[in-house]
Design a protein that fits this description.
Number of strands: 19
Largest sheet: 7 strands, mixed
Number of helices: 7
Shape: globular
Distance between the termini: 38 Å
């Protein structure tokens, strides 16, 4: 059977039958978006389609856009293609996109994790003939500890900071990771937030996602009065003038990249917590097997190594070059 579903262009992943792109990196007329991170949801497109849960943050980040929402599992016909969005477990509103043309099915995973974090919509495997998978952490060294164990480590570090009179500064990407961390924190003390984190908190609270009380760090906030506080901010803010107002800080970073000790040293953090919103090595294997796909395209991550492993396992595997965050060091990819 001739595969009529997706092609790969210099603008992004393209569906000729539906005349749309998936997470395109250059301006197009119609873009189907897996989630709101900046390497996937870019400005300049004529029309956007994303899950209802993803759109509020996308509108906040992209400004005035022409966008339509779709429910998980809802099938919509676009030209000659039937499309549906399915939970990716990456962050609130994130989705895998299923495209069916003439009985042939592809799934574009976007970013995903297979373990349920208890906060965002949990991942659901989708059967298909061809699967485009991220492999950000596509090496055996990347195997995550249970979330509850990592939460204990973070809360113990915060408690130690309080006992030693230090301010706990925790770095995490402002969309997704920060809110997941908030759902894991014990009520040890007040939680202060950088503006980028708090803006996302407010949007997700409005959507009904349960988050603890947080205090936005504004210029007039008396941070000295916030005894025993934990400060949650984007990693880029931890070494900035903004962070220097917090005295005697202990800095940390929550990311899958903390599995590699050298990265933590280069970032100059006191602590590193291994917590990722991407699938680990076992999760990638689990996800691919569950799709039933014979053909797999690996993108953004250890693509060459992962593709080689897939071929050894009997898959028709290929490397797909994209412009998604794949250098492993950006805040988008942790």
């Amino acid at each position: 059977m001739t595969d009529p579903v997706l092609t790969f262009t210099d603008r992004g992943i393209y569906c000729p039958a539906g005349d749309f792109y998936i997470d395109p990196w250059r301006p197009v007329d119609r873009a189907l978006i897996t989630h709101g991170h900046a390497d996937h949801a870019r400005p300049g497109h004529g029309r956007y389609l994303a899950t209802h849960a993803a759109l509020p943050v996308m509108r906040h980040r992209l400004g005035e856009i022409t966008a339509d929402g779709i429910a998980y599992g809802e099938t919509r016909q676009i030209g000659g293609a039937n499309v549906s969005f399915h939970p990716a477990g990456h962050l609130p509103g994130s989705a895998q996109i299923r495209i069916e043309v003439d009985g042939y099915v592809w799934v574009a995973s976007g970013d995903y994790k297979t373990t349920d974090d208890g906060f965002c919509e949990p991942y659901e495997p989708v059967r298909c003939h061809s699967f485009i998978t991220e492999c950000t952490f596509g090496l055996p060294v990347f195997t995550w500890e249970p979330q509850a164990k990592v939460a204990e480590e973070i809360n113990a570090w915060w408690q130690t900071c309080v006992a030693e009179g230090k301010t706990a500064l925790l770095g995490a990407y402002s969309l997704g990771k920060a809110q997941r961390l908030l759902s894991l924190l014990d009520p040890i003390g007040p939680i202060l937030t950088h503006g980028a984190v708090e803006a996302t908190n407010e949007i997700l609270r409005t959507q009904g996602y349960a988050l603890p009380e947080t205090i936005h760090v504004t210029p007039d906030l008396d941070v000295k009065a916030q005894k025993g506080a934990l400060v949650l901010a984007p990693p880029s803010a931890l070494g900035s003038q903004w962070a220097r107002r917090f005295r005697n800080p202990s800095t940390s970073f929550a990311s899958g990249w903390m599995r590699i000790r050298g990265i933590r040293r280069r970032r100059g953090m006191d602590r590193g917590f291994v917590l990722s919103d991407h699938a680990d090595w076992p999760g990638l294997q689990e996800a691919i097997k569950a799709t039933g796909a014979e053909t797999v395209y690996a993108t953004h991550g250890y693509t060459e190594i992962f593709s080689k492993w897939l071929k050894e396992e009997g898959y028709d595997a290929h490397v797909l070059q994209t412009e998604f965050g794949d250098d492993g060091q950006s805040e988008e990819a942790v």
